[in-house]
Amino acid sequence: MKTLGQDHTTPAPQAITPRNAGCALDLGWVRSIRVNRAAIDRRAATLPARRSVKGPHQAAWLCKAVACMDLTTLSGDDTAARVRRLCAKARHPVRADLLQALGMEGLQVGAVCVYHEMIGPALEALEGSGIPVAAVSTGFPAGLSPLRLRVAEIEDSVAAGAQEIDIVISRRHVLEGNWEALYDELRLFRAACGAAHMKAILATGELGDLGQVARAALVAMMAGADFIKTSTGKEPVNATLPVGLVMLRCIRAFHERTGQRVGMKPAGGISKAKDAITWLVMVKEDLGDRWLEPDLFRFGASSLLGDIERQLEHHVTGAYSAGWRHGLA
């Protein structure tokens, strides 16, 4: 079992992608975007069926999913104790005996994502781990508070020590086709983030169609988003494969034209290990191996880790375990 870590590389220091400096708003490019919905749906439908990964390869993909995970708690009843427990899980996401059997000692998640009030407890609990703290901001999840308050919220979270900021866009700008307003808003958010990486949540389930998703993604990248993220996790429809495929194609087009790499974060509704593998395979096929590192790909997840750990135990022992055998995320 030790060959897993040897073949697929034990956890190493995270690669660092240069910040996305963005570019001027190109309305001609934005308005020229067309999406072939039927083709996107056909492509997305084939992914789970024709990409079956088994045995040690499956275990390696699942360890990669853990390394690319933003372990998240965004509940109204969050407490410092809950966040400390989440951070303990972030440091040791999979039981030590399983990681030892897999040759993957030292595996950690990509980040911990919390509300602003929980940044302090998270930083304290993660001290010395190298795991960054991400904070949701800008009136999450609706993004309808006054603009000056949304900007101030980013600045406060950065001052409190958050290394990543997950902002929400104003969906009305997309629905009204007001791309200048969306761009200007996101440039303000990007400036307020300073050295912190900005993840732009598009809330794709509220944008109407895949064409609007593509245009919103492109504007966000032009404005300097370091990641584009599907959802807040609070919408009725969150991360879907067709939406993800459209966003990946936009990332590829932006990289081809500007030379700048932007990350991708699906969030909401991804709770099964097999679904995580499908997303990783899609990223590999459309963007390549470089986008399979935590600086360019994250899962926004709270329950996904539990199923991954059960699958890894099955790989090691040949038997599925009850959920209570694993520390809950």
Summarize the structure in short.
This protein has about 325 residues and is of the alpha/beta class. It is built from 14 helices and eight strands.
Total count of helical runs of at least 4 residues = 14
CATH class: Alpha Beta
Going by CATH, the homologous superfamily would be Aldolase class I
Radius of gyration: 19 Å
CATH architecture: Alpha-Beta Barrel
Q: Assign the structural class, choosing from mainly alpha, mainly beta, alpha/beta, alpha+beta, or little secondary structure.
A: alpha/beta
Backbone shape:
globular
Characterize the main sheet.
8 strands, parallel
What level of helicity do the residues show? 40-55%
What CATH calls the topology is TIM Barrel
Number of structural domains:
1
> How many distinct beta strands?
8
Uncertain residue segments: 5-13
* Spatial strand sequence of the major β-sheet: 7-6-5-4-3-2-1-8
Give the end-to-end Cα distance, rounded to a whole number of Å.
25 Å
Strand content: 5-15%
Averaged pLDDT: 92
Report on this structure.
The protein is α/β, with parallel strands linked by helices and 329 residues long. The chain has one domain: Aldolase class I (TIM Barrel, Alpha-Beta Barrel), CATH 3.20.20.70. 49% of the residues lie in helices and 9% in strands. The chain has an eight-stranded parallel β-sheet with strand order 7-6-5-4-3-2-1-8. Helix 4 packs across helix 13, helix 5 (80-91) packs parallel to helix 7 and helix 11 packs parallel to helix 12. The relative contact order is 0.16. The model is unreliable at 5-13 (pLDDT under 50).
